[in-house]
Each structure stands twice: as structure tokens, then as C-alpha cells.
């Protein structure tokens, strides 16, 4: 997107993860009335707060575009967050959605989805499905669609759809580099761009990328174990 014709906005949403069995409830609250419904207040529990220096606050307030509480369904998250971005993409404007949060907070669940139920599908499969539905409706144009899947790990980019991914060590794979041309267009060197003509093909590539990412993760963990064993012997 270039020039100042289109308003570029960043919208920030919060999603509260459902409580696990042993987790303590009541450490956050969302504004109840219409006006404060986008305010999230985190209350630091008393036993924790007492350990703090006297003048530390015991509650923190944040404002978001919208807050998804523990009951929020994947469908609602898609409708509010991803559908408008997909619509803009179909109209020719770039869009980005990313999840940020500590480990285990639900980024993968929100972006990719949960494995157990079909209704737990996350933003990526829902968006793919939506985009292909829209393209099929438009018989006046011919579209070609491609998928790339990039992982950024320790500040280096790796191509998750590279066929060598499974066989090689992550460090041995060609690094994907980000470059900007004089017109400020971003180019990703060494990133495969695979054609996906329909939802099923796109989902297969997503699955392939996820698998390669998991293999890489296990490999990294195993390297960690080897290191510990070397240390002991
Ligand atoms: N909204 C939710 N509803 C039900 N289960 C959830 C929800 N959010 C997260 N979970 C579950 O919590 C666990 C951790 O979530 P997830 O793997 O998505 O975290 P993450 O932020 O991607 O973590 P990491 O950074 O370690 O990869 C998973 O078992 C996931 O299914």
C-alpha cells in the first residue's frame, strides 16, 4: 500500500484465555457497560501485591478495540478481526494479523486453531476458506493464489514450505532475507511461493508448514537435551 490515500490503522484486540483447572479466577475484569466494554483491568492478587514495594499499583487498566472474554468463540474472533482484513486484501490492500503473548497464552489456538473440534478452527483456516469462497463468487476475473509460510526464529527467517526442511537442520537451510526495493516494496528472498488453486490445496500447504515447524521445534528441544547430557557425562 503506498501513498496517503488509504487510512492505515492498527487495531489491537485482547483475548482472555479460559481458566485451567488449577488457575485462580478473578484477576481481571472487563468494563460492564457499553462504553467501558473495551477496558480491561488486571487486578494483582493481594498476596502478590503485598510483596511489592508500597507505592506499586495493584491494578492495571488497558484499552483495546475489543476484548474477547473466556467464552469467546473462534467464529466471533474471525468475524471481528480477520474478516475485515481479508475483505481489504481482496480489495487490493495488504493486511497483517499477528498474535502476541506469553507462552501458552493461546496464540496458536487463535491463529491456527485447536485440533480437537472442527469449530476450534482458527483464523488462518477460516480466512483461507472465506477468501476462496469470495473468489469463486467472482466469475468476471481469473485469480491465481499462492501460499508462502515463513518462520522467524532467533531473528532469522526460514521457509517452512522448503522441501528440504524435514531433512536438514534448521541452521543449514537457506535463510530467508527481507529486502526493500527503492519503491519500498518488500521482497523475501529464498521463500517458496507455491500455487494453491483452492481451499484444500491451501490447507494442505498450511498443514505441511505446521508439520515442518513442529519437526524443527522437536529438533531444537532434542539439541537442548543432548547439550544437558554432554554436560553430565
Ligand atoms: N481460547 C481458548 N479456548 C480453549 N483452549 C485454549 C484457548 N486458548 C488456548 N487454549 C489451549 O491452551 C493451550 C496453550 O495454547 P497455545 O498453544 O495456543 O499457546 P501459545 O501462545 O501458542 O504458546 P507458545 O508460545 O508456547 O507456542 C493449548 O492446549 C490450547 O488448546
From TrEMBL:
Which positions are annotated as binding ATP?
101-108
Decide whether keyword DNA-binding is in the record. Answer: no
**Listed SMART domains:** KISc
Q: Which GO terms describe its cellular component?
A: cytoskeleton
Which GO terms of the molecular function aspect are on file? ATP binding; microtubule binding; microtubule motor activity
Cite the Pfam families for this sequence: Kinesin
| Every Kinesin motor domain range | 9-233
Question: What are the subcellular locations of this protein?
Answer: Cytoplasm, Cytoskeleton
Q: Which GO terms describe its biological process?
A: microtubule-based movement
Record keywords: ATP-binding, Cytoplasm, Cytoskeleton, Motor protein, Nucleotide-binding
Q: Which family does it belong to?
A: Belongs to the TRAFAC class myosin-kinesin ATPase superfamily. Kinesin family.
Protein name listed in UniProt = Kinesin motor domain-containing protein
Amino acid at each position: 500500500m503506498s501513498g496517503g490515500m488509504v487510512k492505515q490503522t492498527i487495531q489491537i484486540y485482547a483475548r482472555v484465555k479460559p481458566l485451567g483447572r488449577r488457575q485462580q479466577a478473578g484477576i481481571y475484569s472487563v468494563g460492564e457497560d457499553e462504553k467501558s466494554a473495551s477496558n480491561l483491568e488486571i487486578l494483582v492478587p493481594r498476596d502478590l501485591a503485598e510483596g511489592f514495594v508500597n507505592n506499586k499499583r495493584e491494578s492495571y487498566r488497558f484499552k483495546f478495540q475489543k476484548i474477547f472474554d473466556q467464552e469467546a468463540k473462534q467464529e466471533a474472533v474471525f468475524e471481528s478481526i480477520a474478516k475485515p482484513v481479508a475483505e481489504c486484501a481482496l480489495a487490493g490492500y495488504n493486511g497483517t494479523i499477528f498474535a502476541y503473548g506469553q507462552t501458552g497464552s493461546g496464540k496458536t489456538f487463535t491463529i491456527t486453531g485447536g485440533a480437537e473440534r472442527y469449530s476450534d478452527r482458527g483464523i488462518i483456516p477460516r480466512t483461507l476458506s472465506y477468501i476462496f469462497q469470495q473468489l469463486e463468487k467472482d466469475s468476471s476475473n481469473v485469480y491465481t493464489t499462492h501460499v508462502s509460510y515463513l518462520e522467524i526464529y532467533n531473528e532469522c527467517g526460514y521457509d517452512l514450505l522448503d522441501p528440504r526442511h524435514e531433512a536438514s537442520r534448521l541452521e543449514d537451510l537457506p535463510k530467508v532475507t527481507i529486502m526493500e526495493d527503492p519503491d519500498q516494496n518488500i521482497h523475501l528472498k529464498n521463500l517458496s511461493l507455491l500455487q494453491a488453486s483452492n481451499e484444500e490445496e491451501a490447507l494442505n500447504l498450511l498443514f505441511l508448514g505446521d508439520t515442518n515447524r513442529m519437526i524443527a521445534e522437536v529438533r531444537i528441544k532434542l539439541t537442548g537435551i543432548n547439550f544437558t547430557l554432554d554436560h553430565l557425562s
